[in-house]
Design goal:
Length: 188
């Protein structure tokens, strides 16, 4: 495995297009798997490969502008590109209206994915209630709660996605959760 810094120098010093392409391909082979894992943790499963390809294209496009001198700088450069591509995807999804799955289809999917453990009726009731609350919360609460708890985006990513301040996202999520809780029937 060639050192990342050596590959960066090799790319910068390439005299022909073939040399530059070869160095770029070697760089992508080394950082690609880690970037793929990073992306898989940030976007929905059906978008992972598309975002990964966009990230690699952005990486190749940006190699000419990369000015770092260490492997750490290069990794930071790679993850920054991947992060921005993930945020772009989340923004695209946020612009699309949320389509909630039919509860029966969701039940079938959950049961099919449960390999050893079957979801209890109590747990299933909680899932159905959560879906009802998301529907009742209406936008923007439904979008914020969906991003935070279903897509598992952290507050920083949500802030970047919606063009908000980090602290603002924290307050919005707290208020949206309060609103969702207020929709629950009172106990006793």
């Amino acid at each position: 495995m060639t050192n990342l810094v050596e590959l960066i120098v090799r790319y910068r010093n390439a005299q022909t297009l073939e040399e530059a392409v070869e160095a770029a391909e070697l760089l992508v082979r080394q950082v690609g798997p880690s970037l793929h894992l990073y992306i898989a943790g940030k976007v929905s499963p059906d978008c992972i490969d598309d975002v990964y390809q966009e990230t690699l294209a952005g990486l190749i496009e940006g190699l000419g502008r990369f000015e770092g001198q260490s492997a750490g700088h290069f990794w930071s450069f790679c993850y920054r590109i991947a992060h921005h591509k993930c945020v772009d995807q989340i923004r695209r999804e946020a612009r699309e209206p949320l389509e909630f799955v039919d509860p029966e289809q969701l039940r079938e999917a959950v049961e099919a994915s449960a390999q050893d453990a079957v979801i209890s009726s109590k747990e299933w009731a909680a899932v159905e209630k959560a879906l009802e609350l998301l529907r009742a919360a209406k936008s923007p609460c439904a979008d914020y709660l969906w991003s935070r708890y279903i897509l598992d985006c952290d507050n920083k990513m949500i802030a970047e996605t919606y063009g908000l301040n980090y602290d603002t996202v924290h307050v919005i999520l707290r208020r949206c959760l309060q609103k969702a809780r207020s929709l629950l029937p009172k106990k006793g």
